Amino acid sequence: MYKRKGLDYLYKVLFHGFLFLILAISFIMLAVFMAFRIESILLFLKRKIEVGTAIEFLKNIQFTYATAEISIARLGVESFLEFVIRKGAHFTFFFCLGFLFYRAMWASSFPKVLSFISSLCFVVIYAISDELHQAFTPNRTPLVQDVVLDSVGGLTGIVFALFIYFMIDHFRNQKQSVIKTSRY
Q: What keywords is this UniProt entry annotated with (predicted)?
């Protein structure tokens, strides 16, 4: 792709890798913003889901999140599903963020350990800043549990990227060893 010529190479790779990351984050933020229209989600759920079927399927699901019981019995079907969708969207957003940040670091030829640590730090700092932002937003509550959920989503994305790039390296090395042995 680029010839390795010191700092020029590094700047070009960093520019392209992080430009891709910024564009991806912008796209994901737009998608999440659109998905977080809670009124729209609740209206959609009321129109599309048969309450009896949803209750039968989900009635035994109950868990605690931030000291509050989350269940259909306590929240109702629509609010329960809206909660799960919102938290799932957060997890997915941070999964993509972690994956893409690791990918940008990996494409920039940073060592794997540095890429992993930098990506994880970025995801955790972003999750904390998101919760700090909620502290100043009316009708929103910052929660440590949300930071943990977001960070676990990011970590999962980073580990997924590690797995993919490990497999790519493995198959690339396997292919090269087959080529070397076939020459003899």
A: Membrane, Transmembrane, Transmembrane helix
